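Work Package 3 committed the consortium to producing structural models of liganded targets before the mid-term review. Because experimental data for this complex are still outstanding, the team generated a predictive model from sequence and the ligand definition alone, so that downstream docking and mutagenesis planning could proceed in parallel. The input record is reproduced below exactly as it was submitted to the modelling pipeline, together with the SMILES string for NAP.
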Amino acid sequence: MKILITGATSGIGKQLAMDYVAAGHRVIGCGRNQQALAELASMGIESLGFDAGDYEQVLASLGNLEDLDLAILNAGTCEYVNHPRQFDGKMLERVMQTNVIGVGYCLEALLPRMERGSRVALMGSIASALPLPRAEAYGASKAAIEYLAKTLALDLRPHGIGVSLIRPGFVRTPLTDKNDFAMPMRVEVSEASRIIRRELAKGVEEIHFPKGFTRLLKLLGSLPDRAWQQIALKGLKR
Ligand SMILES: NC(=O)c1ccc[n+]([C@@H]2O[C@H](COP(=O)([O-])OP(=O)(O)OC[C@H]3O[C@@H](n4cnc5c(N)ncnc54)[C@H](OP(=O)(O)O)[C@@H]3O)[C@@H](O)[C@H]2O)c1
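The resulting structure, written out as tokens with the ligand in place, is given here.
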């Protein structure tokens, strides 16, 4: 397969790129960090450097790619709200620009040349299953990705292009290493890659893991808002 992965210079994307190339696939890995891109190249991963939030850079980098079997749009960032009454609108803009608008730019560049039988995977998060404290920006960006993926799945089906939404719980990566709160059932990045690759190969439309954690969050998210708010506020007081 010919596979494109954005956010391949670190964390989940890097592990996916290494595992796919080890399995004999042709992998194009994307990111901004030049040193990390050079490291990918040394492992046999073709590297493309661009800022996913920059329209011109995305179109110039991805606009001519042919014969892709799989595009994993994984690049993302996470910032939390520290002072809700001093809401940082620019922080919301930064998170949305990379996590949502950047995905739109990649889709614009890639979809016209993707053939029947190919697949696009969007990196969401189980955070969009329910409102989590301080996750106003990150959670909103992943809720947008969830809607985008589910709508695209409908609209691209007649064109023979599959769409998967990936919704991890916590995975140990530089992104979560910064967190200052408990991360129940956090999985290693190798396990995340194994599950994502297995489920993408089966054409699963919603990939979520670890199941014990993601099912619990989905269940809590289905409760009336007041019930979940009480649980969340009690947790905050602790
Ligand atoms: N780790 C988790 O627990 C978890 C859970 C749910 C969802 N996710 C999602 O999984 C994805 C990967 O997360 P991760 O944990 O692997 O994080 P990570 O280790 O911080 O990696 C993030 C990747 O995204 C790239 N990236 C960020 N901003 C970019 C930009 N403006 N343009 C191009 N590339 C950009 C980074 O590359 P450069 O620095 O080279 O630009 C890097 O390769 C994210 O979408 C995240 O929201 C992660």
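Reviewers should note the following from the model. Residues 89-110 form the longest helix (22 residues). These observations will guide the Year 2 experiments.
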